[in-house]
Amino acid sequence: GAGVSQSPRYKVAKRGQDVALRCDPISGHVSLFWYQQALGQGPEFLTYFQNEAQLDKSGLPSDRFFAERPEGSVSTLKIQRTQQEDSAVYLCASSFSGSTEAFFGQGTRLTVV
Amino acid sequence: QKEVEQNSGPLSVPEGAIASLNCTYSDRGSQSFFWYRQYSGKSPELIMSIYSNGDKEDGRFTAQLNKASQYVSLLIRDSQPSDSATYLCAPTPGSYKLIFGSGTRLLVRP
After folding, report:
1. Which of A64, A113, B70, B104 sees the fewest Cβ atoms within 10 Å?
2. Which residues, in sequence order, are bridge partners of residue B5?
3. Contact B44 A40 (CB under 8 A)
């Protein structure tokens, strides 16, 4: 596709429910990032993949958060046992390589009720 | 001290004026610097990148970088109402990780 594609665009989850957020990066982009953006704040780094390797997961807030990119293309961010503080917009970005410009998808707005 | 500091604004300028957006960062190891524009309810959109000290111009936008002062700015000439958005500064302290400021909200008055 022409840009980074994320799905779903909106997700409402009941507290305690597991969710999976999908990211389809720009074709040929080696690097993939997940960010979390709370209202009125800048995006906060969660994790970074280079191809299928997860090179940095230092931003994942707890062990309830898990990300994978098994074939080096599509990535999934999974949140187990969601809590209200997980409510945010989850942004995926990709770049040709780690040091070049990153392009963002439209994000998934997660609301935990 | 936050890693990236931006004035939250709103910065209000009249149409046609120059808007000046500023950003300071704490990590001297930052090598690449990006400015993203984010409209309300939308995702960040890359508008400028700068890698070396000095000025870089692209249309109505000019990015300025001073690594010694750990300061990067974005100037928008001939501001238009469509420029009204939040502008996010993002240095990369490592080779890949963008660290965003909270953003400056710009309001261009018609």
Report:
1. A113
2. B24
3. no
pLDDT value at position A1? 53
Task: Tell me the two tokens of residue B35.
Answer: 């400015």
Residues in chain A: 113
Min distance A53 CA to chain B CA atoms (Å): 14
Residues B64 and B75 sit within 8 Å (Cβ to Cβ): yes
Q: What is the pLDDT of residue B98?
A: 85
Q: Closest-CA residue in chain B for A98?
A: B96
What's the rounded Cα separation, in Å, for the pair A59 and A25? 20
pLDDT of A99 reads 65
Nearest alpha carbon to residue A22 among A54, A70, A84, A81: A70
Residue B75 CB-density burial (10 A; 0-12 exposed, 13-18 middle, 19+ buried)? middle
For chain B, which residues score pLDDT lower than 50? none
Assess whether pLDDT exceeds 70 at residue A91: yes
**Cβ separation B88–A42 shorter than 8 A:** yes
Residues on chain B touching A56 (C-beta within 8 angstroms): 96-97
Residue of B21, B92, B98 to mutate, testing the A interface (most A Cβ within 10 Å of its Cβ): B98
Burial class (CB in 10 A: 0-12, 13-18, 19+), A18: exposed
Output the pLDDT for position A98.
67
pLDDT value for A56: 94
